[in-house]
Amino acid sequence: MNNGIQNDLSFIFTSLLKPLSFASKDDFLHIEAVKGIELLVSNLCSKAVSYDLSKDIEREFEVLEGLFCNYDDLDDVQKRARISMAMELIEEIRARSSQISLSEAKNKIEILMTPLKDVKGLGPRLAERFGKKGLKNIEDIFYFFPIRYEDRRNIKRISKVEIGKSEVVVGEILVLGEVFYGRRKVFEMSIGDETGILRAKWFNYRIPYFKRRYKAGQRLLLFGEVSSYAGQREIIHPDIEPIESGKEDLDDLKTIVPIYSQIDNLHQKTMRKIVKRIVEDYAEYAVGGVPDFILKRYNLMDLPGALRTMHVIDKTDTVDSINRLPKKSIVFDEFFCLESGIAQRKAGLGKESGMSFNTDAKVVQKLLENMPFSLTKAQERVIEEIKDDMSSPHPMNRLLQGDVGSGKTIVALISALIAIDNGFQAALMVPTEILAEQHYLTSHRYLDPIGINVALLTGSLSKCERNAMKKDVKRGGIDFVIGTHAIIQEDLEFKNLGFVIVDEQHRFGVTQRASLKKKGGNPDILVMTATPIPRTLEMTVFGDLDVSTIDELPPGRQQVDTKVFREGDRNKIYSIIKEELQNGRQAYIVYPLVEESQELELNDATNMKEKLQRDVFVNYRVGLLHGRMKGEEKESIMRGFKERKIDVLVATTVIEVGIDIPNATVMLV
Q1: How many CA atoms lie within 13 A of 229 on its CB side?
Q2: Can you tell me the distance from the alpha carbon of 53 to that of 586, in angstroms, rounded to the nearest whole number?
Q3: pTM for the predicted model, two decimal places
Q4: Residue 353 clears pLDDT 90, i.e. is over it
Q5: C-alpha 343: how far from chain center
Q6: Residue 178 forms beta bridges with which residues?
Q7: 4 Cα distance to chain centroid
Q8: In sequence order, what are the residues at sequence separation of 6 or more whose Cβ sits closer than 8 angstroms to the Cβ of residue 364?
Q9: Are the CB atoms for 198 and 222 separated by under 8 Å?
Q10: What is the CA 624 to chain-centroid distance, rounded?
Q11: What is the DSSP code (8-state) at residue 161?
Q12: How would you class 385 by CB atoms within 10 Å of its CB: exposed for 0-12, middle for 13-18, buried for 19 or more?
């Protein structure tokens, strides 16, 4: 539907609703004051159906016209009912008529995918510079939002500017050039008006550019934070707008200005001009995912309007108004589309055929009888949730979250046993070999006594061992396979894979999980994580998964104490760690960086490991672990720590995947 028809329909809807809204106001107080409504509705509906509308919308206009047939002969109660029905129907028609067809949406999206080099007035060279910022097409420009907005409407006299505040001044260049401060060269301008002088300084500059662009006597608008040096007010690296006499009125510069992340060495004014032109020319092609009635319900802007407002500033706008409604509308649109996609995906998963398991598994009862502990109420609740899924004819997709030590592993084992008891195989995939070994030892201890064959598959197996295991898995001689990404390699075939467990799922991509799923005929999938996930994030990121939470620790588990110390307490912290080491315990010390960074003033693991070994933990063994190490090296370090060959492990957040090292009793972050 073209914009002309949309505008005409919008006028029709407004013309219809105006008298109806007046009639229904104050409990239909003015219902008798509205005259000639039958003729008005008939004329407007006839005009509407003359357009090229869908058959459904045409029929709805005909129903609307029929509501007012012989309207004047109706009694008061009937008139009220007809008006109420008509107003609801008009809103429904308006919502449906605003929806674009799939072909229209595709055409608009195709236009938005136009490369910047093909946009009139831009050209290949400018497009290449924008491309360095990841901006390849028209739509990319829409979402290249300003990093901030500067309110330049309050222009001050130079004598009135306040130190420490961002100010706007207009003045004339009195003198400009390079100045030496000791050995350092600085480019300076002295800007003056009738009330005083202000210095503008640049420490990073290209002298040919400045000499070509600025001349003495030129008028400028300057914006920036005012500081003071040697009693003289100055602005370091100000944002400058030349005032071109006869071309640009000062009032045009007194506005709110969007400031964009820097692209190459393009001037902000050039960037604003390019972005503004593209948004003005193409914003109407933006396709929003939120229906009109939802936009209206939450008082949101449509996507084209919101995008336009973010980039093209109106004189009536304020920084607050730009940052609120347009931004909220765009974020809502993004989340609405994401949630709609997840909902469709979940609906599709629900339609897939899977295995329907008999959850009354005798082997599970054997396990429970042999366990030296009882399940917690939370574990029992979660197991029932999993059983409900497994008994369904559709594949299970469930996220199991719980704190370290909450008992996720035993819940996963019980779930796997249900599948095994039904004649299927189960697999557990983990991100590291040492974690795979940990799971294998736990599983083997519980499952071997009840006759379940468990195998450990990792990349470090010899070729002979691997081939033998592959044969066992393929013929069904192994019930439960535990391993790393080696499980998803193409040459490993299962006889009848029915249940898949993925531990620490954030370490695996979607493709890896999908590859494991393909090993069986739509097996049930249980994803485990010890990372706390807020409810809102669950719905957003894991919307295709049902979520179970073990929110209770088994009896006897020690409470974890978390304490915050100041930098001045560092020696005190080291003393606490030494005390634990003297008692035969081990410790983690975690840093945010692998190596020293010039951009971030943060300690790094590499340098701190050497310093801690040399100056603090002289009599102890200090190890280093970070993500840039090769897999074998990381495994060796973690195994050394597990076997108590390392007392203090200095690491980055690579250690977040839960390795069970009970002897490590303290962690410094």
Answers
A1: 9
A2: 74
A3: 0.53
A4: no
A5: 17
A6: 187
A7: 37
A8: 414, 417, 418, 421
A9: yes
A10: 32
A11: -
A12: middle
Mean of pLDDT values over 234-257? 75
Q: Which residue has the tokens 């209770």?
A: 552
Q: State the Cα–Cα distance between residues 429 and 439, nearest whole angstrom.
A: 10
10 Å CB burial of residue 245 (0-12, 13-18, 19+) is exposed
| Predicted local confidence at residue 654, as pLDDT | 59
- What mean pLDDT is reported for the chain? 82
* pLDDT band of 17, cuts 50, 70, 90: confident
Q: Dig out the tokens for 620 from the structure.
A: 């102890």
The string of DSSP letters for 315-327 reads TT--HHHHHHHHH
Whether 430 contacts 439, CB under 8 Å: yes
Q: What gap in Å lies between CA 299 and CA 302, rounded to an integer?
A: 10
Alpha carbon 362 to its chain's center: 44
Cβ distance 421 to 363 under 8 Å?
yes
Q: Of 382, 398, 374, nearest to 550 (Cα)?
A: 382
Burial of 146-157, coded b for 16+ CB within 10 Å and e otherwise, reads beebbebeeebe
pLDDT band at 21 (very low <50, low <70, confident <90, very high): confident
Which residues touch 469 (CB under 8 Å, ≥6 apart)? 455, 457, 461, 478
Q: Poorest-confidence range of 300-309, 317-326, 626-635?
A: 626-635
Number of alpha carbons in the 13 Å side-chain half-sphere of residue 502: 24
Lowest mean pLDDT among 224-238, 503-517, 643-657: 503-517
Structure tokens at 621: 């063994």
